[in-house]
Amino acid sequence: MSDIGLTLKQVRYTNRAFWRNPASAFFTFAFPLMFLVIFTALLGGDELTFGPPGGRGELEMKQSTYYVVAIMVFGIISACYTNIAISTTFSRDAGILKRTRGTPLPDWVYLAARVLHATFIGIVLVVITAAFGAFAYDAGLPTGILLLESAAVLVVGSLSFSALALALTALIPNADASPAIVNASILPLLFLSGVFIPFDNDTPQWLETLGGIFPVKPFLHAMLGGFLGNVTVSTPAGPFRVFPFDWMDLLVVAAWGLAGLILAVRFFSWEPRK
To answer: Are 114 and 121 within 8 A, CB to CB?
Structure first.
């Protein structure tokens, strides 16, 4: 069997194992939607103010529209970063990774299958969230070039956060510590990047700068550009695009993913920690 065929077969096996745990599968898809309903119920009626510098020609947008995209970002990070980092650490400490490495299955095929499956789950989460947002909150869906840009963001973001998750496992001493370390590494960034608390024209500049150092904020901006890139404001100087799609955001996310891949190749451990 070719390497590609072997990888696809391992992806099917990983997918089958995922669905054979219905409780875990259910909450994997339900958790982001629960966050979407809660945040929109608490804050969805408020208005966010966006617009060009100088405050002329501002746009007031419902937070529910913003949260639909933000929860997509949260769903992908949960599937490709949080779940991979925690589940891989548990598999390592249970000796599963060590036994897998002793089989004829190539190491990279096993890890690639887990990453591809997480990417698939992340894409399914985005589709479900987008459909729910369109039905419940009248959120728009991307079309044309925006759809292609959104697809590129989904793939690059999923692969990058999966690589960062594998790199993070090198810092986790044991399985019991994995939930605390993984959540401590990502939850503050979700707040600093405007995922849970949206940034608008009133956000302090230092907070914008701090969040931009890490990959979550560029990923969120790329997603907003893909799904809301056609939202414009009329100004005296002409139309102003509120959420322009910037390929530089995607390059920043990809750079973080490449760094995570290099660290994972160098420091990833297949054997339980003593």
So the answer is: no
| CA atoms of 192 and 214, how far apart (whole Å) | 9
- The tokens describing 137, both together, are 């909150």
Interacting residues of 250 by C-beta distance below 8 A, sequence separation 6+? 152, 153, 156, 218, 222
Coil, strand or helix at 47? strand
CB 161 within 8 A of CB 80: yes
- Asked if the structure places residue 72 within a domain, the reply is yes
| Residue 193 DSSP SS3 | coil
* Bridge partners (DSSP) listed for residue 50: 59
> In this structure, are residues 172 and 85 in contact, taking their beta carbons and an 8 Å threshold?
yes
48 lies in a domain?
no
**Domain enclosing residue 261, as ranges:** 3-43+59-267
pLDDT tens profile 149-171: 899 999 999 999 999 999 999 99
Largest CA distance in the chain: 67
Q: How many domains does the chain have?
A: 1
CA distance 56 to 13: 55
57-79 pLDDT, tens digit per residue, is 555 667 778 888 999 999 999 99
CA separation, residue 178 to residues 7, 11, 32, 88, 116 (Å): 27, 24, 21, 10, 22
73 falls within a domain: yes
Element (DSSP H or E) covering residue 51: none
Residue 201 lies in a domain: yes
This prediction's pTM: 0.89
